[in-house]
Specification:
4 copies of one chain form a homotetramer. Chain A is of the alpha/beta class and 295 residues long. The first copy, chain A, has 2 domains: 3-96, Alpha-Beta Plaits (2-Layer Sandwich); 101-294, Formyl transferase, N-terminal domain (Rossmann fold), CATH 3.40.50.170. In chain A, 36% of the residues lie in helices and 29% in strands. Chain A contains 9 helices and 13 strands. In chain A, strands 7-6-5-8-9-10-11 form a 7-stranded mixed sheet. Chain A has a 4-stranded antiparallel sheet with strand order 2-3-1-4, covered by helices on one side. The first copy, chain A, is globular, with a radius of gyration of 21 Å. The two termini of chain A are 26 Å apart. Chains in contact: A-B, A-C, A-D, B-C, B-D, C-D. The interface between C and D is medium-sized, with 31 and 29 residues. Chains A, B, C, D: Residues 17-92 form the ACT domain. Chains A, B, C, D: Its EC number is 3.5.1.10. Chains A, B, C, D: The active site is at 240. Chains A, B, C, D: This is Formyltetrahydrofolate deformylase.
Chain lengths: 295, 295, 295, 295
């Protein structure tokens, strides 16, 4: 393939992503790859996973190059639905790499996760379109503005939760493909999660053993833990119990103060959240029951 | 210092370890180091820790070289008690590096932790004297015998717990300085722990989030965890809740089967347990409340 | 699929592995998966990689289940060659999961890598058939014999290299599918590597920056390195420069003595070598130029 | 100790740091700790290291609390010199925790290390006073200004090195305690290093095996490395060969593109450089020959 095409692919031009999930059975890979070959698409990469060696659920992520994808997309989607997905009982999703996801970031007073996402986005490491930052405190406005992203202050507390969520929904609904909770310290109701109409990704600290509730770092230090960590997950009605996307830890010891643990925990949190958002924006993460598969 | 002395120190000859703990106050380091200097001892290394910057608990581990230590030890211990420890209200312990701890390992059917300990001991990496292996199943006898360590089969089950523990106590009491539970799958009663007369170290798997009970690896996989880990801790009456000595994790993903998780978990377990036993045998671990300080 | 079949697959019965490599072009995945579907095989997993997004080299590893594989294998191989491989100019290899690789381990005086391989094999973690251990020193005979593996002492030194290699070749040629150099401290000549007729995997320590030659751990400590590591690679004529299969490191600091570095380095070496041998035995590693792709 | 004093210590008020280095001999710890006790200082923490168990070089870092330190400092320094340092032939340095180091950061076009340092400083994680950023390109001005730090553009290229270094020296000499090269891509001459009058810390990528020269990430990928890393070190006349302060690595595999390696490498670089600068600013790093000891 010639150089200009190579360059287009790197920019995401004419590159499609096909994600699918169905009951496992023979012939799936052949059916999908034959469809794509006949449509004139070249497979750039293909990853698949079965939850069991036989009889489980099959998931596949295929990246392909098809000249003129944007114009052809609707027809391709319809054809794939009729000729493949319906035959095998597949859920599927077809996206274009050149169309970044529209993302809202919700934050509170802590900057580490928020700034890491904005900074990676500006550097070109994290392909997304950050359409707004919603914060329940005004503190971070000055830090966000230089990134050229709207900063919207929506006060939120327990006593005004209903009206706050209504304002947030007015801002978000239909406007975003993903909401990232970047240390947004308020509980979101099941009603909000239901109505917002797109996935939400959250980050929380995690420890061995677990410390739920207030002052987790202080209690972790009192227990003498040797690792502190963070977990990024999709938000479900079960607070902090949704499907895990990514986890990581950092070693600590008795010489670390509570402040040190908070600082090291912040480093893990921002790294874990940024990886989870990156993988989601690259359509790598497939939900399956209460877990995720990263292809 | 001349070469023969250097060599003696490496062999632990004439090398003492002084561990102490007391309420923090000015002058502690000066008092201890002046005592040792006046006794003719040279400090090889000194590590200390205070639980708070002021007003907390002070702990110190001092390694020193004193020609003729074995002969002088009792007098040294008495003098230190009178001239330093009593003055500052210290708990202290004085050990000789040349006298390895007597260790019993309790095992069941799984070999990975047991063999790793015996193998490191044979290689000279882990200075201890393994005086017996007690197992509630006979399966590992052939694996243990080539290491030249007595293998004693004491059947143990829930219904014969009392008599089993009595036989174990008969073997252990007065004969060992440490009991290592190397995947010994039986519960030990508070009475046993109380009577055995020495510390016990246990290893258990650990996950984020935690899975307590049966089939933890299967449940961890169903939850889609990204890390599996292990925790080594001193045994207290609270099962699996004693002071943590060491923890570690290994990354996993959806491609790992339950068997893979078990295999990777075994690697972490043996590494973590071996490190914990090593540090204990080097007198590096000081207990403080429900945590440990590793100096 | 019913339970007995599920169990057969876990045992590797009727499970085939197809590895292939060719110039990338559209239609490859479709051609291979259609061939397998028509042959009655069910794809269990499929991993592929292209060295460039377009115009590079394409590699694929496909695991499939085909009842009666052993009987059908020769015909399947011939058909695939004619109908797919010849058409696309593919190199390919077809193996049966139920037929473990025959492996010889060459060692010297150090036991850590050798014992780790034998121990994982005995535990069932590392599916291979260890047909012999060849050592240029007799020291490890007693450690190897309990594993039920022949231990063959072939003295080897610089001055008798030619005759030693001839004896080793007499033992190995035609009898093994893989030679693992488990800290075998002798140089092997290009002539030996050429004649042995199977791949060789070697392990060596590695540092940042590199210390080539004698006493690497001493020099690493003098340089104050913060990481020590190990690299497992296929052996080529360029000593220690062959395609890398796996690498890892462990953190160290100024408190670690040279002995500590050697001990920690041994832990990394055995872990890295065991992973490399496991992946090779599972046909996961494809060589490409002077690198490897692990599918 | 009462609450106000506890708070003062956390703020660094009346907290001193004493670093010393001398030939090892008995009585050193006693002499120093007795001196401090007699001066009315309370030892908060004490770390020491000997390069050999006997006969080597002894290094110690002592953190102490002394009410009225700022006023008493000069006398304390003089007394310690006369009564302890001169007696034992010590090099020593006495600093006040409340007086942060004055730091200049030199950068070029890449932002990741520079921004991470400024951001941690603003968060209060990294106690230093950034007095200026000097860059040989104007690109990063807009990113630096919101941090309230002067951005000074000093064009520098091979052909104008002499005049550029002269301008840089005019800015730096006498004004800073540390220069951090945050991906400053120009060579600095031995003359500059000699005249600048303070330590310099540099960051560079590091690989196993090493790739020196242009396009290291491309060559690392072609070699199929499994780890990419970074090394922070003090600058000496030997380019990139000065005493190592910190190193770290991240795992990569064949699925990572060159862009991915650059991105992951940037994450390691900024983490490693920030840790090195933090430890230096806390007076934790002692140089010894061509290595560092971190106490």
């Amino acid at each position: 393939m010639n150089e200009p095409v190579q360059h287009d692919i790197q920019m995401g031009k004419d590159v499609g992503r096909l994600l699918l999930r169905c009951a496992d059975r023979p012939g799936l890979v052949a059916a999908v790859s034959t469809f794509l070959a006949e449509a004139g698409a070249n497979i750039i990469s293909l990853d698949q996973h079965s939850t069991q060696q036989t009889g489980g659920t099959f998931m596949q992520r295929t990246i392909f190059h098809l000249p003129g994808l944007t114009a052809a997309r609707d027809a391709l989607e319809r054809d794939f639905g009729e000729r493949v997905a319906d035959v095998f009982g597949m859920d599927f999703r077809l996206t274009e790499a050149a169309k970044p996801k529209r993302v809202a970031i919700m934050a509170s007073k802590e900057d580490h996760c928020l700034i890491d996402l904005l900074w990676r986005n500006r550097r070109g490491e994290l392909d997304m379109s950050v359409v707004m930052v919603i914060a329940n405190h005004p503190d971070l406005a000055d830090q966000v503005r230089p990134f050229g992203v709207p900063f919207i202050h929506v006060p939120a507390r327990k006593d005004i939760r209903e009206s706050a969520e209504q304002r947030q929904l007015d801002l978000l609904r239909g406007n975003v493909d993903l909401v990232v909770l970047a240390r947004y310290m308020q509980i979101l109701t099941p009603s909000f999660i239901d109505q917002v109409g797109c996935p939400l990704i959250n980050i929380h600290h995690s420890f061995l053993p677990a410390f739920i509730g207030a002052s987790p770092y202080r209690r972790a230090r009192e227990r003498g833990v040797k690792l502190v960590g963070a977990t990024a997950h999709y938000v479900t009605d079960d607070l902090d119990e949704g499907p895990i996307i990514e986890q990581d830890v950092v070693r600590v010891d008795h010489r670390h103060s509570v402040d040190d643990l908070v600082r090291l925990g912040a480093d893990v949190e921002r790294a874990v959240l940024s990886r989870a958002v990156l993988w989601h924006c690259e359509d790598r993460v497939i939900r399956f029951g209460n877990q995720t598969i990263r292809l």
